[in-house]
Amino acid sequence: MIVPRDPHERTMKQATAIAHPNIALVKYWGKSDVEQNLPAVGSLSITLDGLTTTTRVRFDESLTADRFLFAGGEAPGMAGRVTACLGDFRHRVGATAYAEVESDNNFPTAAGLASSASGFAALVVAADAALGAGLHPGELAEIARRASGSAARSIFGGFVELSLVDGGRGIETRQILEPAAWPLAVVVAVTDSGPKAVGSTDGMLLTERTSPYYPAWVASSPADLAEAHSAVERRDFEALAAVSESSCLKMHSVMLSARPALVYWNGTTVDCIHLLRGLRAVGVPVFFTIDAGPQVKAICLPEALERVGRELAGVPGVERVLVSGLGGGARPVAG
Ligand code: 2P0
Predict the structure, then answer these.
(1) Which residues pair with 33 in a beta bridge?
(2) In the prediction, which pLDDT does 10 show?
(3) Cα 237 to middle of ligand 1, angstroms
(4) Which helix (H) or strand (E) holds 43?
(5) Which ligand 1 atom lies nearest to the CA of residue 204?
(6) Binding site membership of 287 for ligand 1 (Cβ less than 6 Å)
(7) Which atom of ligand 1 is nearest to the CA of 39?
(8) Which of 234, 232, 16 is nearest to 123 (CA)?
(9) 100: buried, middle or exposed (CB in 10 Å: 19+, 13-18, 0-12)?
(10) Which pLDDT value is given to residue 11?
(11) What is the pTM of this model?
């Protein structure tokens, strides 16, 4: 429980924001500039609604360092990245005060659900609201992106595209379709809730250095993005399914061809892929995507949700399934 020093400070310098994780359908894997955390490829994602990060930021001139609490406790593993992101934010808006940050998720952090994306999106939106800085969403996405590439996408809701601009020296992130305009559903099959073996940043750098297929991955990304963007605009589920599965499998192909190989899947991951391909082959509107971990995300039309959830839950080795619809972007809330 944070006790503000006085009511004025509470009004002026503290705010709470929520953000949701997102799932990329056209994947981001690789950096063109590690220092700037610039992605080597654009990406296209959907923002979820059922899973939420809530973050409170309180700027206080009397603090001598930033402080970060996660789920009520110290989180030394994340504190450095939180401090760096806050530093970036202060630099952008000309602020000097350190901040106390309290964050929590209403979903399992180890579920392979991009909690860094919702975490950094909520952080920058709460910081912006606390200081009344009024940065526009594109600027917030830019600050969040430097902390975690996927976080830029969680600033926005629904269908979101992160594009490379200026010959790859910058990015632009924007919503391409509101969530209500095409209310897809998502089932996450958790096949292993342990921590992943190799984090995304290390995995990307290894892939870039060692996979002979990495240049082909980067070269093929713009066409996938254009195809997915068009499919979303047309609400063409089959077209989105085809390009999304292809992008996912190409990303895992460059991971598998790194030395040493990055094998994020387990046997249950593969069983889920076969199940979902089988369902789609008999006309069930569903496709899969998988990130840097063994969980399988099934994206489906609402009418298929009950069956997809039931069938995935029945795959031996699936620990549990989480269900979500599409949600809005990161935003301040009362609290
Ligand atoms: C994505 N992933 O597009 C891809 C697919 C994982 C696999 O974005 O290094 O944790 O912090 O910028 O944000 C993981 O991204 O990576 C990720 P960093 P981040 O969702």
Answers:
(1) 38
(2) 46
(3) 24
(4) strand 43-47
(5) 9
(6) no
(7) 12
(8) 16
(9) middle
(10) 46
(11) 0.94
CA distance 43 to 201: 16
Q: How many CB atoms lie within 10 A of CB 62?
A: 8
Closest atom of ligand 1 relative to the 145 alpha carbon: 12
- Measured in angstroms, how far is the CA atom of residue 91 from the centroid of ligand 1? 24
- CA 117–ligand 1 middle distance (angstroms): 8
Q: Whose CA is nearest to atom 20 of ligand 1?
A: 24
Long-range contacts of 298-303 (CB under 8 A, 24+ apart): 298/186, 298/187, 298/188, 298/189, 298/272, 299/23, 299/25, 299/46, 299/184, 299/185, 299/186, 299/241, 299/244, 300/184, 300/185, 300/186, 300/187, 301/184, 301/185, 301/237, 302/183, 302/184, 302/185
Looking at residue 85, its pLDDT comes to: 98
pLDDT, residue 133, reads: 97
Pocket test for ligand 1, best of 150, 162, 173, 264 (most atoms within 8 A of CB): 150
Mean pLDDT, consecutive 10-residue stretches, the chain (335 aa), reads 48 88 98 95 97 97 96 89 97 96 86 82 98 97 96 98 93 97 97 84 97 98 98 98 98 98 97 98 98 96 98 97 97 93
| Residue 75: per-residue pLDDT | 85
Number of the ligand 1 atom closest to the C-alpha atom of 27: 3
Using DSSP bridges, classify how beta strands 22-26 and 43-47 pair: parallel, antiparallel or unpaired.
antiparallel
Residue 110 confidence (pLDDT): 58
C-beta of 37 in contact with ligand 1 (< 6 A): yes
